[in-house]
Amino acid sequence: MNDDNINVVKEIFWPAVFIASLSFIIAVFPRFIITFGWASDDFLSIYTGSIGFVDWLVVLLIVASLVLGTMTVKHSENEVAPENFFDKFALFLGRVTMLLVVSLVTAMLVEVVLRYVFEAPTVWANELCLWMSGFVFLLSGLYAMQQRNHIRIYLLYDILPRNWQRVCDTISVLLILFFAFSMVYGGFGEAQAKFLRWETFGTYWDPPLPATIKPTILIAVVLVAIQALVNLVADWNKEPESHSVIDEEEVESIIQQQTRKETSHV
Question: Residue ranges of the chain with pLDDT lower than 70?
């Protein structure tokens, strides 16, 4: 393996461990609900079991992969460099999201081959892809906020003095925080109910999409709001940026990167 391949393996190792461990815990999470005494009588009529040593070991693995992945994640040349621990956390979840996209495409490819080549379609591929798409959509928002790649309109912003730009940034962050508070305040009860009864999708495979996606919506909104606040603090004393229709720095970076690749292959 060359250095590039080794770096790729290092980059995806902890995100892969995090996804695999979290997938296992989701599969056995009814045991946690029963063990912690959150289960209703209806729940106990469907699920049984209790937490074992392996379950706790996987929980520790989730925490370890999250911490170590956050500490060791590295940004690429085309990414905004992380300036604090929360930035690195967002960058790590960005890597998790990217790996989920690869998993999503792989699951779709498997389904297409099985359905149209072997005429043996699966009962899980469509819902698994829908499930992963939900997580990708939610987690990518945090990565976009950390990278300052969310949609922004600079028409008036760029002509304002720096102090007024700070005022606009502050108002924007306050609105984001208010939105996050409103989402959590209005949606916590429903998310908690779906989570504790481990609500499923109601299909043949019957994955717990509502039980996992609904709480993740609130978690993602809170994380985006925190990242917006972190960005405000980090960018407070920076010089104003000039934005053009074409990002010349990005174009130049892409050209330089392509040139290095062509040179390395010669």
Answer: 1-7, 242-251, 261-266
Listed as own residue / partner, the contacts of 83-90 with beta carbons closer than 8 Å and 24 or more positions apart are 83/234, 84/230, 84/234, 86/226, 86/227, 86/230, 87/146, 87/227, 87/230, 87/234, 90/142, 90/143, 90/145, 90/146, 90/223, 90/227
Count helices and strands in the chain by DSSP H and E runs:
8, 0
Residue 102 CB burial class (10 angstroms; 0-12, 13-18, ≥19): exposed
**Residue 249 has what pLDDT?**
65
Q: From 127, 112, 104, 94, select the one nearest 213 (Cα to Cα).
A: 127
Nearby residues of 120 by Cβ (< 8 Å), 6 or more positions away: 114
For the chain, the domain total comes to 2
Q: What angle do CA 141, 223, 149 make, to 5 degrees?
A: 30
Select from 27, 90, 93, 25 the least CA-distant residue to 62. 25
Do both 52 and 116 map to the same domain?
no
Same domain, 119 and 176: yes
Residues of the chain with pLDDT > 70: what percent?
91
Helix (H, G, I), strand (E, B) or coil at 21: helix
150 & 119 share domain: yes
Point out the domain boundary residue: 72, 102, 133. 72
Q: What is the pLDDT of residue 257?
A: 73
Report how far Cα 224 is from the mean position of its chain's Cα atoms.
Answer: 10
Is 137 in the same domain as 174? Answer: yes
| Structural domain that includes position 103 | 73-265
pLDDT at position 85:
93
In single-letter form, the type of residue at position 58 comes to V
